[in-house]
Amino acid sequence: MWQQVEKQALRTSGKRTLVAVLVLFLGIAVTVLTAALEIFPKNGLWRPMENPDAYRMAAAARESLSGRVSMELRELPLYATGYELGDGTSAMAICLTTRDGLWFPVVVDLSVYDRMDDYGTLEGYQGRFRLMRDPVTAKEIADTLREDYAFEESEFLSLVLEPESPVLARTGGMLRLFLGLALELLGLWLLLGRLELRYSPAWKSLSVYGPPEEAAAALEGELSRCPSPQPLFTDHWLLVRRPWKGTVFVPVGDVVWCHKSVVLRGGGAARCSVILYLRSRRSPLRWEMPSEAHAAAVLKQISRTSPWMDTRYIPQWEQLWKHSPEAFRNNPPCRKF
Fold first, then answer.
1. How far is CA 147 from CA 58, 116, 151, in A?
2. Largest Cα–Cα distance in the chain?
3. Closest CA to 97 of 162, 43, 42
4. Are 110 and 84 a contacting pair, CB within 8 Å?
5. Which residues contact 324 (CB under 8 A, 6 or more apart)?
6. What is the C-alpha to C-alpha distance for residues 51 and 44, in angstroms, rounded to an integer?
7. Non-local CB neighbours of 69 within 8 Å, separated by 6+ positions
8. What are phi and psi of 221, to 5 degrees?
9. How far is 158 from 50, CA to CA, in rounded Å?
10. CB 240 within 8 Å of CB 302
11. Mean pLDDT by 10 residues, the chain (337 residues)
12. For residues 194 and 190, what is the distance between their CA atoms, to the nearest angstrom?
């Protein structure tokens, strides 16, 4: 129905497509890695080891891709060491425990001291644990206790367990999972905007000026009479192509003021743009031009449709727009007569 409009709306550089593909693949990567390494793997948050023996714990620690091994432990004997991790109300007690003839450190809440006997011993402790996520601290704890208690290598496991909150752990994993899904949807939406007119930035820009179907029909008629395959403008419309954000259509009558902007780059190159000040938006719209000749043609077309407009750059006019765009629209200082 709107073949020319669709052709111009979806014709843009590959930059927007590249962004869409990158966002989509980033979302897929976050989703897959979160699901594979945190939420659904064996010995992970949703399938912790059920009261494993010491050898299973050691094997899981070696085989884990993420190092985040979770486990339910029961009937643990705890022995106070006198060491604590952290300060104040957040401090944790560092204890020793044994299973299957092997010793290893466990970090637990300070309230465990209230349940210990006079010898600093507590039988039958249980809870949800994980391997300590800070490898530097874990190594320091293990090395210190092995040296203090003169453990042989064959009777000591160099791993440290710390408590795990299933709710908090799963919440973090689910948040990352939802983040990945959100990125996937965003990437698909951006790709859809490159393939389907009604989901493109151009269609959204047409809806600003009333029913987009009517605006598209008017623009279709003008584009069908345009000799250039990639025009910058028609009799009453500007085709603003933005490399990263997509093409938008702007009626010439929506332009309150415009001027040329030339920015010098390194090596003597210059970047030429036309700055559009519109009734329909607060911030100016920067329209990059292939050359100064193209910019001059655009300004000439706008002047032909709006002969009252002065298209020179006047700093005072720019400052007036920044401070009071509504006053600028009501009484444009760029009006010649």
1. 20, 24, 7
2. 98
3. 162
4. yes
5. none
6. 14
7. 43, 44, 49, 57, 60, 61, 130, 131
8. -65, -40
9. 21
10. no
11. 74 69 89 73 74 88 73 93 89 94 94 93 92 90 94 91 70 77 84 74 86 88 84 91 85 94 76 93 92 93 93 94 93 88
12. 7
The residue written with tokens 């560092």 in the block is: 94
Q: Residue 182: phi, psi to the nearest 5?
A: -65, -40
Instruction: Of 248, 258, 191, 257, give the one whose Cα is nearest residue 215.
Output: 248
Residues 297, 290 contacting (CB under 8 angstroms): no
Instruction: Please give the single-letter amino acid code of residue 135.
Output: P
Whether residue 57 contacts residue 71, with contact meaning beta carbons closer than 8 Å, is answered with yes
Q: What is the pLDDT of residues 65-80, one digit of tens each?
A: 566 788 899 999 999 9
Q: Is 163 in contact with 129 (CB distance < 8 Å)? A: yes
User: Of 119, 54, 115, nearest to 82 (Cα)?
Assistant: 119
**Residue 143: strand pairing partners:** none
Question: Do 8 and 232 meet the contact criterion of CB atoms below 8 Å apart?
Answer: no
Specify whether the backbone of 150 is left (phi greater than 0), alpha (psi in -120 to 50) or beta: left
According to the 3-state scheme, what is the secondary structure of the chain? CCHHHHHHHHCCCHHHHHHHHHHHHHHHHHHHHHHHHHHCCCCCCCCCEECCCHHHHHHHHHHCCCCCCEEEEEEEEEEEEEEEECCHHHCEEEEEEEECCEEEEEEEEHHHHHHCCCCCEEEEEEEEEEECCCHHHHHHHHHHHHHHCCCCHHHECCCCEEECCHHHHHHHHHHHHHHHHHHHHHHHHHHHHHHCHHHCHHHHHHHCCCCHHHHHHHHHHHHHCCCCCCCCECCCEEEECCCCCCCEEEEHHHEEEEEEEEEECHHHCEEEEEEEEECCCCCCEEEECCCHHHHHHHHHHHHHHCCCECCCCCHHHHHHHHHCHHHHHHCCCCECC
Contact of 276 with 284, CB cutoff 8 Å: yes
